[in-house]
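User:
Hi there, any thoughts?
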Amino acid sequence: MRKILLFLISISFCISCVSAKKHNAQIEALHMPESLHRDIDRVYNQLKKHHPNLYQYTSKTDLDFKFDSLKKAINTPINSRDFYKKLAPVVAQVKQGHVSLGSAYIEYTRKELKVLKKKKFEFYDLDFEYLDHKLWVIETRGKDSSLVGAEVLKLENENASDLITGFKSRFASDGYNQTLQNRLVGRNFSTFYFKEKGFIDSLQVQFKLKDSVFIKTLKRIDKKEKTKENDSIAPEPKPIVKLSKAEKKQNRIAERNKRKKHRELGFIAKSKEYTRNFSFIGKDSATAYIKIRGFNNGNYRKFYKKSFKKLDSAKTKNLVLDLRDNGGGRIAEINYLYSYLAKTKYQFMAPAEVNRRLSFFPAFMNNTSSVATKIFMGIASPFIAVDNLLKTKKQDGKLYYRFPYSKEKEPRDQNYTGNLYVLTNGNSFSASALISTHLKATKRAVFVGEETGGAYNGCVAGLYKIYQLPETKLKIRMGLMQIEAPFKQNPDGFGVKPNIEITPTISDRLSGNDPELEWVLSNISKN
């Protein structure tokens, strides 16, 4: 048995090596214009086939013209990475934030990945933000904090401003607003740069800190790299401590409680933060603050039950719900949260428009689905088909899938009925925008900050199809369902706009000021 297992592992290793080499050769090769034209047609055909509202923000005439113009412009061989730079801005013209084109990445064998995991790139220790039309380092995850507050001028020989202009052209918000571009391009600058340049071992960056301009070379270093002084000093061995049975039991209980807390609050390992946070502001319990970083992590039900029970017991008068930099997530979670914020009976979602009755199948049965997923779908397909057929109805010539969230519901017991303030910015997207639409349309909350990156009138999301282009290996992701609240605003194509518009500055960031929250607390104090 052991020999068979070793044989299977070695076969799997060999296959992965051959597959990685083949993939890398294909994305690094120069592709003929005819092949690239076919991939362009495939992208557009996939969008036309599966996207339920493709021409919501850009007309068919305009979109046809943009795809045809791209084909005419490509008349010489180029590689996959350069093709991505040309195709992504055209895909972005759909102006739907959930439609995105992924760059071509080099694949690594298990052996190569093992080596890479022992190193870290210093560039990825920097957190950026785009404020006042400039790129700033606002935080460092390493021990060196000397770059905090520095403006990024150049990376190698390219101006940071030129890179940002290019990056912003390759993705879209929902509709016409620009707040998502400005927030996302700063927050994910490292990711965009990796898509642009691929894997690199070092990077020369020109910074400006106060009046000083300097260049720093950021390298890929060993995670456990030691200084020369420390190399000569042998570390002291840790003493072996023998624990009693009672102490071991206590440690197990502590570890179990820690895991429960991580699940309930949604622990984010990379930043060592929690997705959900609750606290009272000030000396009494008159004002509470809930910060939600995303709707996609952990056991949310326990958190909201406990939080709103505290608010009810404390007779809290003011609640601040912070949805800044919340990119969205589960509809189930925002529906559950809204049930504690609603004052009257409500319908959370309108039925979702889809392109076909069996709307779930394109999401799981495509050329990027794993073998395990396809096997599962094959087994479960009769049940999924019945569900889709029963819940999909035709109305006015269109197909609609009815989620359980489309039914009218009552608010939960211990629902909060006091004053509500919602903080948003351009990174408040998707599910964040959906719950914000409800709270704005029903005049339930005062909104402070920036217009949400997600549209007031909904988005195409819910389920996604990820399709890989055969020639260039780029992947396009598209939503399959029109997700909307039962509210509309005119004109279409804009986010949920704040009652009080506040855009933070770099001075706010460096001084630790939170101008949006400060306005709310000042307003509460006055009233």
The chain has a mean pLDDT of 90. The chain is about 40% helix and 20% strand. The longest helix spans residues 2-28. The CA atoms of residues 134 and 161 lie 7 Å apart.
